[in-house]
């Protein structure tokens, strides 16, 4: 499926250094639980769209160390016994996770790995590298979808992507709500519609704009979209596109669209729409690109700019301005007991034990606005507490609840066959539909509550007290 | 060398749509020149460090379309004759470029591709994807190097990188001045020193911190760096590290360092240094990490924090806050004549023809602060003009000058064997040494001048006049 096979050494050196210490120290088989979570919703927003899971599961299933990698690690001074272990390495842990495309929230565990500590440790960098980035981009894309309504959204970002990051960015964009991508390989590997027609260079390579439009329309009468801003959008580009569109009609074809790529997009779209309509080309669509992000799209929609499709590049595929999701992978159980990390920054104190997440639903089946993190064994939760503010708690009795995480791997094997990007995108769309708009708005979104159950709170507070005494 | 082989379809669809139009229109062999340049120095800085060239040249040499890709393109409606062409595709253009690691400036052409327009067009996305990102990260790294002086800099970014972008980020970081990376695979493929010891999870997996330190030091007495902030840096971490260091001495070893990963790094470094020195462990180095960027490093250095090495993650590998370099690939010659793109935004008007860049040197062999862009055939330049402000020009007579670009590919084959990352990094270091600090400072850096020669200006102005008349 993917053009990528992650090598075993696609990791941070310290994962292997620690793994060797577990191996040689005889603790490698000790059962451990790690949680993947992020501490802040991206883009100062109210939620995130979880993405990257299917790629991550494939990467874990295929995780191997090749002979050349073993040789390199030997040069780095690793122990021969440990290298022999790596040579036969297979990932055999259990993984629980939210479904890919799920709407998730800061501080709540999104994925958990349970198994021998040495394997769970080795998986850390790979999981973080895949999940952090795709979740960032899927969330960014969902914000653009929120702004764009039902207008088309196309990913144009590959040229400005962070190198090969552009490959998975195109996948995540569709999960977040994009319709298509310019990225041919991502389209091929992930079954995403591909889109794109011509650039300024094609126009410039001809002696004049009309000659270029004619040459292109002749070669590509289907889905022909002409770029109209190479010289002067309203005085040259749009009139030449109209002339070309009329010639296409004579041959029984229809010009599909024009693309605006510079200048004031609202003004130009309105003028171009009027010119096209007046020429009887009301069916020609207007595509706009050029430094767009969710805020620019929102503004264009508010101005009633007659734009049918937005092409978005840099801000989408790089998840600008955040550029990274701060996802972490924290130890919750090891050495026969619950584990915690204490720090001066209270909100960075971790939650111990294997856990599960209950989501409260309102009467219409929409999200009520609260997730309760509980111990894995709890059948239901009666109340949830703010993790740190002892004054805040909420009775959860009588609410319909959903369990957000489910087993996705047992003993290192997937529990079900991989979902297509199309299926994941449909699920994300449905879940975003269950989230009220107040959580989606860009400025100061309503805060979705993530709390902890009585029993989880009790375990955590005992651990804090023990370490504070020590 | 690289773990990546770029497939031919790792491109924007419109490159192939245009290529098909050139092919079927009979213009595919027309000679063309494209320039790669960026319009704004990254990070509001005064320069950029050019990186990614060797990877880009390898990608061009290896550029092929595989049968599965041809099949996918057939489903997308591409013409059978064009697909037959793609099946035998080889990149045969000439490429001129600045050396990798060169200090380069906005608006000046950094790389040019000359050859059949169909091939030069197909190369666009690949070149932009590779060069934009590595140049962004190498420049970011160089700013951190400028702030850090001769302290060690280590890349810790893989977990927060934009997916696979992390692979090339580690390479570019070293070109910009980093010493090592945590990224094992990048270290292996690019000959970069790898570095890393342990994380919080290792400490937490033991019943107490001292037991964890002892277990780790026993398994790894060489280059052992202990992470001291899991519970309480000054009351637990540093005292336990000192105890471990003393036990190591008894066995004839030396604790290499401690790592601070949270809290006020300046304060903690000073206190930890005093505690280590008092314990006779003056040789133990202090490594600091946690949300660092060039500004944080500069501040720590100004506060005389006794930090020997900085571990930098997110801001380095994502090139935050920019997250992308706005590099473009513009047509300068085609269809037997110079080409230009006119736009309302004057500074986006392109420079026609195949060009070269002369760099002025001062009496000491340092950069004088001005590059002159000239036509390829010019032996020397007598004067350079501001590209748009007709009042500004500079006589360049009597200056020693260097030619910045050179042939790097002829007919699609490299003109010399690939350089190692170590060689490129050494060149970048030397070139950054020739650039005065005024261009490197973070706040309002001195503006390095990029001008155009008399003859280039004449060609460009003739073209502008022609299009404005039309």
From TrEMBL, chains A, B:
One of its GO terms (molecular function) is nicotinamide phosphoribosyltransferase activity. Pathway: Cofactor biosynthesis; NAD(+) biosynthesis; nicotinate D-ribonucleotide from nicotinate: step 1/1. The keyword Transferase applies. CDD domains: NAPRTase_A. Gene3D superfamilies: Aldolase class I, nicotinate phosphoribosyltransferase. It is an enzyme of class 6 (ligase). Residues 11-132 form the Nicotinate phosphoribosyltransferase N-terminal domain. InterPro entries: Aldolase_TIM, N/Namide_PRibTrfase, NAPRTase_C, NAPRTase_N, Nic_PRibTrfase-Fam, Nic_PRibTrfase_pncB, Nicotinate_pribotase-like_C. Transiently phosphorylated on a His residue during the reaction cycle. Phosphorylation strongly increases the affinity for substrates and increases the rate of nicotinate D-ribonucleotide production. Dephosphorylation regenerates the low-affinity form of the enzyme, leading to product release. Keywords: Glycosyltransferase, Ligase, Phosphoprotein, Pyridine nucleotide biosynthesis, Transferase. It catalyses: 5-phospho-alpha-D-ribose 1-diphosphate + nicotinate + ATP + H2O = nicotinate beta-D-ribonucleotide + ADP + phosphate + diphosphate. Residues 153-318 form the Nicotinate/nicotinamide phosphoribosyltransferase domain. Transmembrane segments: none annotated. GO terms for biological process: NAD+ biosynthetic process via the salvage pathway. Residues 355-458 form the Nicotinate phosphoribosyltransferase C-terminal domain. Its EC number is 6.3.4.21. Pfam families: NAPRTase, NAPRTase_C, NAPRTase_N. GO terms for cellular component: cytosol. SUPFAM superfamilies: Nicotinate/Quinolinate PRTase C-terminal domain-like (SSF51690), Nicotinate/Quinolinate PRTase N-terminal domain-like (SSF54675). Belongs to the NAPRTase family. Catalyzes the first step in the biosynthesis of NAD from nicotinic acid, the ATP-dependent synthesis of beta-nicotinate D-ribonucleotide from nicotinate and 5-phospho-D-ribose 1-phosphate. This is Nicotinate phosphoribosyltransferase. It comes from Alkalidesulfovibrio alkalitolerans DSM 16529.
């Amino acid at each position: 499926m993917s053009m990528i096979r992650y090598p075993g050494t696609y990791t941070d050196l310290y994962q292997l250094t620690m793994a060797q210490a577990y191996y040689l120290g005889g603790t490698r088989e000790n059962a451990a639980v790690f949680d993947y979570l992020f501490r802040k919703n991206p883009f100062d927003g109210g939620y995130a769209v979880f993405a990257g899971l299917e790629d991550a599961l494939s990467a874990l299933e295929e995780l191997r160390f090749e002979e050349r990698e073993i040789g390199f690690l030997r040069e780095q001074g690793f122990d021969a016994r440990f290298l022999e272990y790596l040579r036969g390495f297979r990932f055999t842990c259990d993984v629980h996770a939210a479904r890919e495309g799920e709407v998730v929230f800061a501080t709540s565990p999104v994925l958990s790995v349970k198994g021998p500590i040495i394997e769970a440790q080795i998986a850390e960098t790979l999981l973080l590298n895949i999940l952090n980035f795709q979740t960032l981009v899927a969330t960014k894309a969902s914000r653009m979808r929120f702004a764009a309504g039902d207008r088309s959204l196309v990913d144009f970002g590959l040229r400005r992507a962070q190198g090969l990051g552009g490959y998975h960015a195109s996948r995540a964009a569709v999960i977040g709500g994009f319709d298509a991508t310019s990225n041919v390989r991502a389209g091929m590997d992930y079954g995403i519609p591909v889109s794109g027609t011509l650039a300024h260079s094609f126009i410039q390579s001809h002696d004049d704009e009309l000659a270029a439009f004619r040459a292109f329309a002749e070669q590509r009468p289907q889905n022909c979209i002409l770029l109209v801003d190479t010289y002067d959008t309203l005085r040259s580009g749009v009139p030449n596109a109209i002339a070309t569109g009329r010639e296409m009609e004579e041959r029984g074809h229809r010009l599909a669209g024009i693309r605006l790529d510079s200048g004031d997009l609202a003004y130009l779209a309105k003028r171009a729409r009027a010119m096209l309509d007046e020429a009887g080309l009301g069916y020609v669509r207007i595509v706009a690109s050029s430094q767009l992000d969710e805020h620019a799209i929102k503004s264009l929609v508010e101005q009633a700019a007659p734009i049918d499709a937005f092409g978005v590049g840099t801000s989408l595929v790089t998840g600008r301005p955040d550029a990274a999701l701060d996802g972490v992978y924290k130890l919750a159980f090891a050495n026969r007991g619950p584990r915690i990390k204490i720090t001066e920054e209270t909100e960075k104190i971790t939650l111990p034990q294997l856990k599960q997440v209950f989501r409260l639903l309102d009467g219409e089946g929409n999200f009520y606005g609260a997730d309760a993190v509980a111990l894995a064994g709890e059948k239901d939760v009666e109340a949830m507490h703010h993790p740190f503010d002892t004054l805040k708690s909420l009775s959860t009795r009588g609410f319909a609840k959903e369990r957000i995480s489910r087993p996705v791997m047992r003993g290192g094997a997937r529990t079900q066959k991989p979902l297509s990007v199309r299926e994941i995108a449909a699920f994300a769309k449905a879940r975003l539909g269950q989230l009220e708009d107040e959580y989606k708005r860009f400025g100061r979104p309503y805060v979705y509550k993530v709390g902890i159950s009585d029993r989880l709170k009790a375990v955590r507070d005992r651990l804090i007290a023990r370490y504070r005494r020590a």
